[in-house]
């Protein structure tokens, strides 16, 4: 009985700590995976145009700001989600050509990255 009570208290403390984000402020999300880039022009799924620092993500809301860090060289940039994709297994984000240059990934085309919502 004592071990159940301790586990319950521990879980309660953990859940309390997790839910202490200030009201109205979204909790940052982080993923690691592969990024690719595209140099297309024209309109995106959101109806806006491909920009210097824009990106495609499968599910994040349009307008979400995301910090992208290239894990092989430490370079980073902030992009705005305005398109859908990538639809290639293992890839978590497609960045614009300009963002790919800032990340130093144009030569390889694909890079291991960590992304975090801001």
From TrEMBL:
Gene Ontology BP terms: cell wall organization; peptidoglycan metabolic process
Record's signal peptide: 1-21
RlpA-like protein double-psi beta-barrel domain: residues covered: 32-115
Protein family: Belongs to the RlpA family.
PANTHER family: ENDOLYTIC PEPTIDOGLYCAN TRANSGLYCOSYLASE RLPA, ENDOLYTIC PEPTIDOGLYCAN TRANSGLYCOSYLASE RLPA-RELATED
HAMAP family: RlpA
Protein name as it appears in the record: Endolytic peptidoglycan transglycosylase RlpA
Organism: Rhodoblastus sphagnicola
Lineage start: Bacteria, Pseudomonadati, Pseudomonadota, Alphaproteobacteria, Hyphomicrobiales
